[in-house]
Amino acid sequence: MQTKDLLQLAEEFGSPLYVYDAEKIQSQYNRLTTAFSKVDSLRINYAVKALSNISILKLLKQMGAGLDTVSIQEVQLGIHAGFSPEKIIYTPNGVSLEEIEEVAQIGVQINIDNLSILEQFGTKYPNIPVCIRINPHVMAGGNTNISVGHIDSKFGISIHQMPHLLRIIENTNMHINGIHMHTGSDILDVEVFLYAAEILFEAAKHFMTLDFIDFGSGFKVPYSKGDIETDVEEFGKKLTKRFNAFCKEYGRDLTLAFEPGKFLVSEAGYFLAKVNVVKQTTSTVFAGVDSGFNHLIRPMLYGSQHHIENISNPKGKERFYSVVGYICETDTFANNRRINEIKEGDILCFRNAGAYCFSMASNYNSRYKPAEVLWFEGKGHLIRERETFEDLIKNQVVFEFEPQTA
């Protein structure tokens, strides 16, 4: 997308505004499938939690993707978007047995990550195929909040609990058709993936009824020009070779699965916000925008970096600004960032706004959630309307107080 296109969309649909470039999503999907083109059976399950707009799901469905879901609501969104149940995997954490049972009745692939629920589910439904999420005890990821495969993580069944796991499977006679892991997000070192993969391969040898091995995801994307990223092509060559060799050792071909979210949609996303005020203090120049962490919480939640451009003045002289929001508490997008000179009314563009941005938005301070637009074949298409006051009060039930008497 070009700057003029973003400015046009901000003018047409208002701000703040999320914009997603369909071509970038498509190119990322193709990049991943190309990297693993020498695997006979590859399955890409898009992680719905990254960005769950139905139009985005439909775009990925058109490309051949399946879905990775973590809640029954995400499963229902996938079905609503036209995915067949067998193209969806459900990997919850800490949910009730009742929710898992409800999802199982829909017919999607169940992925269980704790021994208690596994035993209960296997006892009641031994004939329903189940995938097992293993915790390989590998510390990986760009932040402790997104590292999920280490020893203190709440996710997965510890690799050291394998004897207990096998005893449950033997006692229930349940059908295990997949094995899964996810070590974390923003993983840069390919060798970390390969090391964890070896642990998963070793675990897979205990289950002779597998149809697939799921390696999760966690590929790092660049957050600024020249930033480093996971070398997906190198990873594809190395893991393909090892996976194909394992299949021969295992005795038959298996499906290799991934669950990318950020990798597919992060760079495709742009968040546009208008500058309400430029405020000079004794030590800082603040650029205050018509948004806040209610719309884009990642910088405040875990220090994520989003490149910020003043697309209204792309050739202006660079100055230092702290970009802040309008929420009534500390609400900072960037501190002392070099940005082309900013004036009130300018449009700032936040890059890498496709993943975990709108999906984590809220109505804090009773602000409306932004609109979403899909840029497809050179044109902007509204895929979510901006909220209104009616949306804020839609589900509220007003309690009528009796008039006080003297």
Automatic annotation (TrEMBL):
Chain sites annotated for binding pyridoxal 5'-phosphate: G218, Y356
One GO biological process term: lysine biosynthetic process via diaminopimelate
Pfam families per UniProt: Orn_Arg_deC_N, Orn_DAP_Arg_deC
Cofactor(s) listed in the protein's UniProt record: pyridoxal 5'-phosphate
Residue positions binding substrate: R298, Y302, E329, Y356
InterPro entries according to UniProt: Ala_racemase/Decarboxylase_C, DAP_deCOOHase_LysA, De-COase2_C, De-COase2_N, De-COase2_pyr-phos_BS, Orn/DAP/Arg_de-COase, PLP-binding_barrel
Record's catalysed reaction(s): meso-2,6-diaminopimelate + H(+) = L-lysine + CO2
Parts of the chain that traverse the membrane: none
Pathway per the UniProt entry: Amino-acid biosynthesis; L-lysine biosynthesis via DAP pathway; L-lysine from DL-2,6-diaminopimelate: step 1/1
Residue ranges occupied by any Orn/DAP/Arg decarboxylase 2 N-terminal domain in the UniProt entry: 24-266
Residues at the active site: C328
Family the UniProt entry places it in: Belongs to the Orn/Lys/Arg decarboxylase class-II family. LysA subfamily.
HAMAP family for this protein: LysA
Entries under NCBIfam families matching the protein: lysA
Quaternary structure annotation from Swiss-Prot or TrEMBL: Homodimer.
Identification of the protein by name: Diaminopimelate decarboxylase
Organism: Flavobacterium kingsejongi
